[in-house]
Structure formats: C-alpha cells, structure tokens
Request: fold
Amino acid sequence: SLVTTNEMLKKAQEGHYAVGAFNVENMEMVMSVLKAAEEMNAPVIMQTTPSTVKYAGLDYYLAMVRAAAQRACVPVAMHLDHGSSFELAMQALRTGYTSIMIDGSHESFEDNIALTRRVADACAPSGISVEAELGKVGGKEDDLVAADDSPYTDPQQAKEFAERTGVTSLAVAIGTAHGLYKGTPKLDFDRLSAIREVVSIPLVLHGASGVPDEAVRESITRGICKVNFATELRIAFSDGVKKYLHENPDAFDPKKYGKTGMDNVIHLVKEKIAVCGSEGKA
Ligand code: 13P
Ligand code: ZN
Ligand code: NA
Reply:
C-alpha cells in the first residue's frame, strides 16, 4: 500500500541520495514509473499538479497509483504537487494522498507561513507529509519553456519558515525553473549549502527537467532529498506516441501507441533514478 514521504525522505537524507518524484498524467505514465522503480529497486513518488487533478480528479489518480503500489515491492507515495489552496490540500488529504505540497510561494513571507502552517496542522494528526515552497521556482508547472526571473530562497528565512510552519520538507529556489531551459541553467549551489546548514528537514529540487545530470547530482551532494521531474516525462511519452502513429498512420489501438510511449517513459525514469542515486534503496 501507499506510504508517506516522511520515512522515504529521511532515509534519503541519511543516505545522501534523493528520491525521484515523477509527475504522472495518465494510467500509462503511472504504469511506466512503477515499472522503472521496480526494475531499479528504488522508492518512488508519483505526483499530480492542480491542472492534472482538474483533468481526471484526485480520486482517479489516487486509484491508479494505489493499484500500482499494491502490486509493487518498492515503496510508493502519492503526492499533491504545487497544491494551490488550502481547500485543494484538504481534498487531497481526505481522498487519501499520502503527501501534500502547499505552494504559498506567491504569497508574502508571512502569508505563506500562515497558509502553510494551516495545512501542516491539518495533516499532522494523520502523519501525512507536507512540502512547502519558499522563494520562487521559475516558470509555470505546465510551461514547456522556463522563465528564470525568480527570487531565490534566503537561508535565514528558510530556517524561520521551517520552524514556524512545521512542514516535513521544503522546496527551495536556487535557479531551477519548470519546463525546459533556453540555455544551461546556472544553479546557486553555495546558497543551497547555506540553506542546508540551517534547515534540518529534507530539501526538494523542482524544475529538474533540462537540468544537466551533473548539476542534479551536485545538488543532491549538497542536501537535496527529492527531485521533481515533469516536462521530460511528458515529452518522452508524447514522442513515443507520435513516432508510432507517424510510422503506423492506420493504427487505431490505443494499447499499441500507448506501449511505445510507455517504453520511452520507463527508459527515462530509470535514468533519472540512477542520477538520484536511489537505485537499490527500496
Ligand atoms: P520540470 O517540468 O522542469 O521537470 O519541473 C517539475 C516540477 O518541479 C514539478 O513540480
Ligand atoms: Zn515544481
Ligand atoms: Na525544468
């Protein structure tokens, strides 16, 4: 059955690796992420953004990931990514998500704390994990090309934020952005180390699509315990489907082109798990 991200991320923190968190959009992507995690014997987080939730509903995604977890011999968590309101966070909690992000990064420091704290307090009795964000990860979750105009996380503010909210993990802004980058992203590793020095809870890296493997590894060395991948999975799945339909224009069986999309996602997720260092950590 599904687990929370508390235990997973604590183990990752102690073992100096990161757990891969993969955004899923449909059943094929859920199946692919699970297959990759099993083949790598790695713990895994599947997550859905509000726009994904809007597409099919929290209950649909939870049911698919729960089915995956029931078959799995690796730990699987179901996470709400970028929870956009207290209400959506509570819906995810009631539905049975085992980990919830409340994204108050667009609010003022004090309003972000107040909102995050409310969610953390509501989730604490059931032991459900809560991730928050301080500073702004560039771009929007559904953008293909990232914008990099975001203010970075301040270490002292991060320390105060973690203490006052009681969250179980914290997403930091150190130069990554959602979507693919125009050039090579430059990450502020010194800032990450400064945050790690004063914040004890697991730190999360968003916007990892398009970040060179070396930079992801360096961020893990400096304290990142969860790495989010979305855009590259969407591209991998869609490219597989497009390729099949291009080569077989008369195809009409969704299982046929779904398979080529899945093969791409499985291959990609296995690579990302290797970069995260979570292979064999299940
Ligand atoms: P990418 O789309 O850049 O991989 O970002 C993923 C993410 O941060 C999801 O929250
Ligand atoms: Zn994100
Ligand atoms: Na990105």
